[in-house]
Structure formats: C-alpha cells, structure tokens
Amino acid sequence: MMPAVQADTEETRYGAFWDARLMARFFGYAKPHRRWLLLAMLIPPIGALSQLAQPLVIQMAVDRHLVTGNMDGFGALLAMLAGLGLLQFVTGYLQSTINAMLGQRVISELRRELFAHLLTLDAAFFAKNPSGALTNRIANDAEAISQMVSAGLINLFGDILLLIAIAIGMVTLSPRLSLVVLLLMPVVIAVAFRVTQRMRMIQRHGTLLMARMTARLTEENEGRDVVRLFHQQKAATERFGALNREHRANADKSNLLEAFQFSFVETASTVVVAVLLWHGSGLMDDGTVTIGVLTAFIDAVRRLFFPIRDLAGKFTTMQSAMSALERVFALLDTRPAIGEAPVAPIPTLPNRPKGAIRLAGVTFAYGAETILSNLDLEIAPGERIAIVGPTGAGKSTLIKLINRTVEAQAGQVTIDGIPVEEIPLATLRQWAGVARQETFLFSGTIAENIGLFDTRIPRDRIARAAEESGAMAFIRLLPDGLDARLTERGNNLSAGQRQLLGMTRILALDPPILILDEATSSVDAVSERLIQAALERLMTGRTAVIIAHRLSTIRHVDRIIVLAKGRIIESGTHQELLAHGGLFAQLHALQFQDPSDAPDDPVA
Ligand SMILES: Nc1ncnc2c1ncn2[C@@H]1O[C@H](COP(=O)(O)OP(=O)(O)OP(=O)(O)O)[C@@H](O)[C@H]1O
Ligand SMILES: [Mg+2]
Fold this sequence. Notes:
Elements: H1 20-30, H2 34-66, H3 74-120, H4 123-128, H5 131-173, H6 175-222, H7 224-229, H8 233-285, H9 291-333, E1 357-366, E2 369-379, E3 384-388, H10 395-402, E4 410-415, E5 418-419, H11 425-431, E6 432-435, E7 444-445, H12 446-450, H13 459-469, H14 472-475, E8 485-486, H15 495-509, E9 513-517, H16 525-539, E10 543-547, E11 559-564, E12 567-572, H17 574-580, H18 583-591
Parallel strand pairs: 3-10, 3-11, 6-9, 9-10
Antiparallel strand pairs: 1-2, 1-4, 4-5, 7-8, 11-12
Helix pairs in contact: 2-3, 2-5, 2-9, 3-5, 5-6, 5-9, 6-8, 6-9, 8-9, 13-15, 15-16
The structure holds adenosine-5'-triphosphate and magnesium ion.
C-alpha cells in the first residue's frame, strides 16, 4: 500500500538525481517518441563542438593574422567563426524546441493515464488521500517530470559535454592557464551549487505553500455560504492571510538568492578573467603564452561559466523529477480495493437480469467494527422493498453491497443467482442504478448531465426520460431547455430540481434494478410530491431497494424491513409493521407527531 499523498508531507529534501529503476520505467513513456529522443541526444555533441571550435579560431585569427599582419586567409577564418556562431544558434534553437515538445508529449500521456487511473480507485483510497493533494499530484508532479525532459535530462547531458569540450579546448591552448582556471573553478561551482540548491528548495516549498493556498481557496469557495451565513468572513480572511503571508516571505527569500546567484556568476567570471590576465601577462613575458591564446582563453572562460550558472539547477530539476516519478508511479501502482473478478467472467450473463437479489449470511465490518452480521435478505424480481432504521444502523452499507461499492467479509450477494464478484463491474453498475441524497451535477448542459456525457445515449431518450420523471416541467421554463447550461455542481438549480435530474439520469440509463438512498430527505413538501411521483415511475418494472427517512414516502412498497444494529429485526408491509407495534410503529408514531410531516392521505 502506498502512503497517503498529503500535500503537507511532501518531501522538500533532495535525494538522488538519477534512479535507474524509475528512469527505465519513465523511458517506457518516451518510447513512442524515441526518434525524437535520439535526435535530441545527437544535437548536444554538435553544439559542444561548435563552441569548442570558436576560441580555437579566435586564437588563430589573433596569432596568425592580427599579430603578424599577414591577412591571407583572415577573411576565411572570420567566415568560419560566423558559421560556427550560426551553428551554435541552430543547435541551441533545435535543442530547446525538441526538448520542450518531447516534454509535453511524454507528460500528456502520463497525465491522461493518471487521470484514468484515479477514476478506477475507490472510496477506501479517497478516504486516505484528500482530493486537493491528488489535484496537486497531477498538476505539479507532472510538471516536474516534464521539466526534467525539457530542461533537465538532455540539457544536463549537453552541459556536461560542453564543459568537457571547453576543458579540452583550454588544455590544447595552454595547460598552464588551464591550471589557473581549474584551481578557481571549484570554488565558483561550489558556491553556485549551494545557492541554487537552497533556492530550489525554497521554491519547492513555495509550490507546497501555493498548493495549500489553492486547497484553502477551493474549500472556502465551496463553504462560502456557511462563512456568509455565520458572518465569519474575518476569520476566513485571517486563515487565508496567514498562508498568503507565509508564501510571500518564502518568495522573498528565493528571490534574494536568485538575484545573488545571477550576479555572483557574472562577477566570478570577471574575476577569473582578471586573474588570467594577470597570470597570463607573466607567461607572455617568458613566451609560454601568446596574445591569441590569452584572448581565446577569455572567450572560453565566458563559455565555461554559462553552463555552470545553471548546472546545479539542472541537477535539482532531475532530483525533483525523481521524487515526482516515485510518487506518480506509486499512485499508478495502487490497485483499487474492489477490483474486477479474478475468475473469468461467466460467459452467459443475461442482457437484462430479472433482478432477483439475494444476500445470504452476509457479514460486513469497517475494520474492527461489525456493521452487518450474518444478514439474510431475499428480494424477488420486480419487488419494491424499503429499508428503514435508526441512523448508523447499516442501511447505506447494505445497499452498497448490492452494487459492490463495498465487499462482504463473509456470506454472498447474488443477482439472479450470480455472485456479484463474478459480474464485471461495468455490467453490475449498469444493472443497478443508484440515486443518492445529493445528485452531483457537472458544469455542462442539462442534457449532458442526464446522459452523463455519454454520447451513445440518444437525445430523444434523454428527452423522454425527462418527460417521464417530470423534470421536463421545469426544464421547459429554462431559456435553452435541455441545452440550458448548469454552473458548477448545478448551483443554479434548486435541491428538488437537482434530485429530479438525478432520477431522470436513472430513467435514461434504464437499469433493471433501482437503488435509492434517502432521495427525498432534503426537499420541501411540494418538491417531495413531485419526486414521489418520479419515484413511482422509476420503480415501475424494476426491482427497487429504497432507503427513506420519511416514512411517508414508502407507504406503498411491497415490503419494509427494519434494520437495527446490523440485523433485520422486523419485516412486513406498512400495515403489518404498524400492527406489530415494534420499532417501526415507534418510528412512525414519532415522525407523525409533528403535524407538518403528516401524510397527505391518512393511512387507514
Ligand atoms: N467509510 C467508513 N469507514 C468506517 N466506518 C463507516 C464508514 N461508512 C460508514 N461507517 C460506519 O458504519 C455504520 C453504518 O453506516 P451506514 O452509512 O450504513 O448507516 P445508515 O444506516 O445508512 O445511517 P443513516 O441513516 O444515518 O444514513 C456507522 O456506524 C458508520 O459510522
Ligand atoms: Mg445512510
């Protein structure tokens, strides 16, 4: 099992910049683009050679022509220098373009896979991993990995080649002067490395702070009604302000280091040039070094400093990519607790089952807490059954067993005699349609929300479903009817309208089994009557299992079972249970003491 991906616990330390196991797996993603990758790896040597040649040409131009005054072939050398400059430009340009393109290609595939994978995971996973952290994973880790391709991997290779090439050029020109550079360089590199690592660490922390701030914003935005209703704007602003201040302080630190880093490398290269000139003048006196060599050296030193400025940056890019890869692959390796059946699906699944549901000796526990114990329940095809009972009795848990949202530890759940574990999840979820208290609506049109963006569901079926549920009555009044756009979560609809759409969804999908969890508990009497009517139509021709807190909604079902402490303690029709005088009769009496809840046609 992977650790929870809390944004707050993310590493801000740096580890290895290369992990063969992770990189091997990563190259699997780059494989379809291997031609480009190969090309990208061929460019740096050419670039390095073009840079190595330039100081050598300068040396020749000075020593052979400017010093001697012999201008034969001087023009050709200048043309060559210009050509090398052009080559450097072309290789640099191609390199950046190809790297960036590769980075985007590889990462978009990884991002798609991550997203698709998240949709296969179940409640147990999301209980441990806050959605904010997961969003962060897809956005930030993917970005870190794409940075590795576009700015780390190949560039690091290129920079190291360049350093080697220039070093070779320098030694060829003058071993003595090279020694001077060799003595000074480690100091510059050490400082540049240290500062860059510190800066990147702070920047990385900044990303974390930004992720926390985004999570805070999202939550506050969703809870803004609560904040306004209780007039807690001040407290909310303060909570946000604290995070915001922390982020600013962090950014200040990193900006200071960045400014220092930039000027430091510039200054250091000038100092090295000064030392070279001072030492070189001595060497020129005894004839070990020519003026051309010294000039070429100044050019080479500048070229040497350029990659060094961001060499550490590239290492840290690789380091953050390694930890991002680690987390991303761990996420991809997480398997849902409830997966597809290990046994081969039985070949003769009915297209449309009759809808006989049976729970036999079912025991279910969340950890050590037993929720349902040795429960037996048989529901005939087309039967309408209601489950009532005190809160926490295990009603929702019971119906989750039917479509395998949870799995029993003991006993068996079957549909038409087929154990649910043997039914492919896609089929099972098609067979049993679930409506819940809260209908989640996406931003999009009403029609899209009814068909859940499945383009295979024809428009007229959606329209028919809306007529059938009675939702058409309010949809018709909207400016664009079925094409009216819903805002995020369907905030521009009432609670009752949202529930009607939830039921329309089920009608459009037309499952043989209907499962309903408290669909009427949060609406007023008028909406409730509308929903009650939709419910009647929904139950027609289907096996229906409904949980209702309002006992008035279930007066007409075939059978009511009363669940308490994970056991069925009463079972029978509305009349029978009232006559029995048990828990149901008590609940009923309690509920109808409140006159506003009285049933509209009194029970005989
Ligand atoms: N994901 C979970 N992890 C741990 N315990 C859970 C989880 N979901 C529910 N429970 C526990 O299981 C018990 C039964 O929950 P369930 O949702 O089935 O009750 P219910 O009968 O539907 O109640 P209500 O009428 O309030 O909806 C409760 O005690 C609850 O605390
Ligand atoms: Mg419940």
